[in-house]
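Entry 14. Structure prediction run on the chain below.
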Amino acid sequence: MPSLRDLNLRHLDAVATAARLGSISAASQAMNLSQPALTQAVAKVETVLGHRLLDRQPGGVVVTEAGRLMTGRIEHALAYVAQGGRSVRRGARLPPLPNVERRITLGQLLALMAVDHAGSFALAARHTGLSEPAVHRAARDLEQLLEVALLARQGRTVQPTAAAIRLLRFARLAHAELESGFDELAALHSEGAGRITVGVMPLARAILLPQALARFARLYPVASVDVVEGPYIEVLSALREGAIDVVVGAMRDPLPVADVVQEPLFDDDPVIVGRKGHPLLGEPGFVFQRLLDFPWVIAAPGAPVRRRWEQMFQEQALEPPRPRIECGSVMVVRGLMLEDDWLTLMSRDQFLLEDRAGLLSEIAGAGSSLRRQIGMTTRQDWRPTQLQHEFLSIFRSTCAEWTSGKAMDGQPFRYA
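Output returned:
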């Protein structure tokens, strides 16, 4: 797999420019480079990537399939770098730098990302394999170029300034775009090669995501899938920076940011759950008020499940009881409920996993008004690879089968 450290943004720009103009001579004029220099730049990129990107012919250059895939990624990566540079300068009320994406280097961006991740120049140097002076120099050169402070010492650590935080987002998006290009090139050699990173929120997709992952793994045995679990704000932030490709879980209304899109897949019905043999299971009928007589474990205020839990009681004209324990960990909740007559509110597909294990039982449905839409969230400008397209397709079909199955089963609620 190629490494970004071995590439040069200006060389990548040379490839994209020559491909767009269809001529080495026209590209050299556009970039103010000699033809030999531009030819050498293209050759260096092709050597690093291990693919011929441009075929030289008497009438100009013709883009190969590898070149078509890669130049699109290069152009988007350069656009991100340009956007980041403009954002930093605009935030400091400085005039824009012409062709800022040709002035910034990949080494500078990688150094800034490494320092931000490590919190110090020494650790950043260790992680990148560069010397500490080299990392320091790259970061400071970037500051001088943009004429804006990017890193500030706070005690023993080095922290990004507000300007750096803006730039880092676009740097990471450029990084992700080029990495996607590498994956597409790898797929030319080995069908199904590549990767996808899926963000998932706690309590979300206990059944469907594993099913989709299993199907995907069988169809694409050489593909790599990373599943990252975390709170919504964390996975959303990673999605917007390109570290995560798609987020699976409950949809938000309204969306907290404008640069992502949601695709609904199915409705999820929360259920009231207790241990096997819970006293409520032995009572004839179901009296909602009896839920007040047992201890509850539920997520902390602000969590979507907590809001639905409170709504459930309010719709019955009852004040929600004070939760004895607030917790969002599935493992802790399960262990606690097995010890006594605790109750909780759980996603139906999460409950099905517990039901299969013979540990917990459904006390009652929570009511149709508490249904929530489950879907996928992606960046508005995300350009998925073919492999990532295939994963989304598999996940959609898995959800469609689940929805169809629920419609046939009916799954009536035990109270209205």
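The mean pLDDT is 92.
Filed with the rest of this week's runs.
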